């Protein structure tokens, strides 16, 4: 289960966990301090977002950003279903985050940056929104070789 605790997953709504599409466990990379502000870029249906919201507690906030309305709605319904009032879900793009400068303690993201066309721009946005001393905890896909043109143009390989 990618290092997730089965019990904490079981405590989330099925609508959230059944739509999980991550590549790892960004929450396993480091502690999420109580009272902190966490930003989940490409939060999808909200698995990591809701787990982060539990960790930061009532004094903290978990903010999800996703470009897909259906995913945002799932995350919002999931937060409401388990009574997490410290969750916000915003419409937005990883390359232009709808979040103020220096407002986030921990940026998390799971299986999203590989999908973002301009990764430098996305990295610059992460740097902009982090507070000094903030952290980035990302799970994603990395390839170590240059892909042939044919593979780049084969959409089945993008989604398989
Ligand atoms: C593979 S899913 C991962 C979802 C979630 N992080 C998880 O672990 O289940 C990718 C998500 O990123 C969102 N996404 C892709 N590109 C994005 C972008 N440029 N800006 C914001 N969200 C994006 C998609 O809408 C989708 O919800």
What does this structure look like?
- The protein has helices spanning 6-10, 14-17, 47-56, 69-81, 119-129, 149-152, 155-159; strands at 37-41, 61-66, 87-91, 104-110, 130-139.
- The chain is an alpha/beta fold and 160 residues long.
- A 5-stranded parallel beta sheet has the order 3-2-1-4-5.
- The protein is globular, with a radius of gyration of 15 Å.
- It binds S-adenosylmethionine.
The distinct bound ligands, ions and cofactors come out as: S-adenosylmethionine
Count of separate DSSP helical elements:
7
Distance between the termini: 20 Å
Give the biggest sheet.
5 strands, parallel
Number of strands: 5
Report helical residue fraction: 25-40%
Query: What sort of overall outline do the alpha carbons produce when their principal axes are compared?
Result: globular
Q: Uncertain runs with pLDDT below 50, 5 residues or more?
A: none
* Average pLDDT, all residues: 95
Q: Strand order across the biggest sheet?
A: 3-2-1-4-5
Spell the H/E element sequence.
HHEHEHEEHEHH
Proportion of residues in extended strands: 15-25%
Radius of gyration: 15 Å
Q: From the helix content, strand content and strand pairing, which structural class follows?
A: alpha/beta
Describe the structure concisely.
By secondary structure, this protein is an alpha/beta fold. The chain is built from 7 helices and 5 strands, in the order ααβαβαββαβαα. It is globular, with a radius of gyration of 15 Å.
Secondary-structure map:
Elements: H1 6-10, H2 14-17, E1 37-41, H3 47-56, E2 61-66, H4 69-81, E3 87-91, E4 104-110, H5 119-129, E5 130-139, H6 149-152, H7 155-159
The structure holds S-adenosylmethionine.
């Amino acid at each position: 289960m990618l290092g997730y605790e089965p019990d904490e997953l079981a405590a989330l709504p099925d609508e959230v966990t059944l739509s999980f599409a991550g590549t790892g466990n960004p929450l396993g990379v480091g502690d999420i301090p109580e009272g902190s502000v966490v930003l989940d870029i490409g939060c999808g249906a909200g698995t990591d977002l809701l787990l982060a919201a539990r960790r930061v507690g009532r004094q903290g906030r978990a903010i999800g950003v996703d470009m897909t309305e259906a995913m945002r709605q799932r995350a919002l319904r999931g937060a409401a279903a388990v009574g997490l009032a410290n969750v916000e879900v915003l419409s937005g793009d990883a390359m232009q985050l709808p979040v103020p400068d220096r407002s986030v303690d921990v940026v998390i993201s799971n299986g999203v940056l590989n999908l973002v066309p301009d990764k430098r721009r996305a990295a610059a946005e992460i740097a902009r929104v982090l507070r000094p001393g903030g952290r980035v905890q990302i799970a994603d896909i990395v390839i170590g070789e240059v892909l042939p043109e044919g593979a780049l143009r084969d959409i089945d390989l993008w989604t398989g």
